[in-house]
Each structure stands twice: as structure tokens, then as C-alpha cells.
Design brief:
Elements lengths: L1 H7 L3 H20 L5 H18 L9 H22 L26 H18 L4
């Protein structure tokens, strides 16, 4: 328990020693959940921050390493789920050089709703921006 007490006391040397022992294995473990090395590094950094934030709540019912890897697994699963829902903008690009939306989908300037729409937007923006410095 001396390591845990040192971490709770904010001992930087104890923390750096722990990082030195576990960091590389944590990155490899996280890489099993996420798609990129950068995402794995991000998750590990988030894990270290969460560990420091929650060390006072560590009850010692498991090994410190197991507790840290449990945090890592939860954060990595959450990140992987989030990343699967994200679509990179590059995937939305058209290679044919054509606009993404056909211009005929928009109302022509002569349409009766055209002027009213922009007047409404313009008034809303002006009203919101007026009190700004």
C-alpha cells in the first residue's frame, strides 16, 4: 500500500514510476479496442487522469494494476463506440467534382418564401449580435 499512499499524497516520482511500468502495456491493450494508435494514446492519457482523480476512492479490493486496466477498458470501449458512430468528412467528399446537393433542391430567389426566410434570419442574427461588444 505504500504506492497507493504515495499516489494519494501526490508523489510525482511514484506516479512517474507507475507510468513507466504500465504505459506501454496500456497502449497495446487500448489498441485492441480503438482503430488508431492516436486514439489508444488518448484513451491511456484519459485513464491516467481518471486514475489520479479517483485514487482516493480506490478500496484495494483488487490490485492497483487491475483497477487501472478496468478504467482503461471502460474508457476504451466508450471511445470505440463513439468512433464507430463518427463519419470522417473525407468520406462525404464526391470524387466526380459535382456539387453534393443539386441546385434545383433550393428555392429560387423569386419564390415568395425566399425573402421572408432571409429577413427572419437576418433579424434574428441582428437581435442576437446587438448586445455583443
Amino acid at each position: 500500500m505504500p504506492l497507493i499512499e504515495a499516489l494519494r499524497a501526490g508523489d510525482e516520482r511514484a506516479f512517474l514510476g507507475l507510468v513507466g511500468r504500465l504505459h506501454a502495456g496500456m497502449v497495446r491493450f487500448a489498441r485492441g479496442f480503438v482503430n488508431t494508435d492516436a486514439a489508444a494514446e488518448d484513451v491511456v492519457q484519459d485513464t491516467w487522469a481518471a486514475m489520479l482523480e479517483g485514487i482516493d476512492g480506490f478500496e484495494g479490493r483488487s490490485a492497483l494494476r487491475s483497477w487501472i486496466f478496468g478504467i482503461l477498458a471502460n474508457l476504451a470501449r466508450t471511445r470505440a463506440t463513439r468512433d464507430q458512430r463518427a463519419v470522417p468528412l473525407s468520406a462525404l467528399e464526391h470524387d466526380d467534382g459535382e456539387p453534393a446537393v443539386d441546385a434545383s433542391e433550393f428555392l429560387p430567389p423569386s419564390h415568395p418564401r425566399w425573402g421572408g426566410h432571409w429577413a427572419q434570419v437576418s433579424g434574428s442574427v441582428a437581435g442576437t449580435a446587438a448586445p455583443l461588444p
